[in-house]
Amino acid sequence: MSRSRTPVEHRTTRSHTRREARIKAILWDNDGVLCDTERLFFEANRSVLGPLGIALTREQYVAWYLEGNHGAWHVLRERGYDEARIAQVRVARDDAYSRLVSTSSSLCFPGVEQILARLAQRVSMSIVTASFDEHITLAHRANTVLEHIDHIVARTDRLRPKPHPDAYLYAMDKLGLHPDECIAVEDSPRGLAAARASGLRCIVLRTELLAGHAFMGAYRVVDSHRELEIELDALLENDSTLTSHTSYP
Q1: DSSP class of residue 108?
Q2: Angle CA(68)–CA(153)–CA(231) in degrees, nearest 5?
Q3: How far apart are the C-alpha atoms of 150 and 47, rounded to whole Å?
Q4: What is each CA distance from 122 to 70, 184, 230, in whole angstroms?
Q5: Would you say which domain of life the source belongs to (predicted)?
Q6: Of the ranges 5-14, 46-55, 118-127, 144-153, which one carries the lowest mean pLDDT score?
């Protein structure tokens, strides 16, 4: 399903300012890459699973949510919960996450707004995420990130989730581009798997939760947004003059 967005209209009016580049689009994961919301999703899951007798650990969260995509629902099934009850727990989790995001401020990582504002002059950009639209809007309500985004592919689109390639394939289709014209930016093993399955090169931003993960098959693995910016600049240079990097506080 295609959704019209104000940022798309805004971007169209200045598309002529972009210079030609071999890489024509950057496809961004959202949680853990653009905004510091992965920790909130972890806490939302803990808050609803705890009363049910599941003390979700960081290691379990990584294995069940970031490496795999089955969540803790298999544990509930093993304990006799039917699908209707599990669906209720999912809704409670999503509501808890909404509350955490709506009551948190400054979720955007430092420097991200400036990076996107500068890159938007050169390439198209999409967000490719498993989050709902409402959570993306909440997370970015106090920043300018969405002003620079052409398309958002979210859970609302009802595609198979990462590590399946569907969301990335859909994003490229909406942009009218091929995998060799795009680069993905991810922070999780299943996100990397989805990008690779769709034919994309993928830069991985290493986070605290996955500090020791090898991320085999990544185009690059970086440890900060500054390093990420440098790698993206190198890809976009295309034999042109180096541009200045964002100043960080």
Answers
A1: B
A2: 75
A3: 34
A4: 37, 16, 15
A5: Bacteria
A6: 5-14
Q: pLDDT for 51-105, tens place per residue? A: 999 999 999 999 999 998 888 999 999 999 999 999 999 999 999 999 999 999 8
Euclidean distance between CA atoms 151 and 3, whole angstroms: 8
Residue among 203, 130, 210 nearest 168 (CA): 130
H-helix or E-strand spanning residue 171 = helix 166-175
Angle, helix 225-237 to helix 112-119, in steps of 10 degrees:
10
CA distance 190 to 210: 12
DSSP structure class, residue 68:
S
Contacts of 12 (CB under 8 A, 6+ apart): none
Q: Are 21 and 236 in contact (CB under 8 A)?
A: yes
What pLDDT, on a 0 to 100 scale, did the predictor assign at position 106?
A: 87
Distance CA 230, CA 243 (A): 10
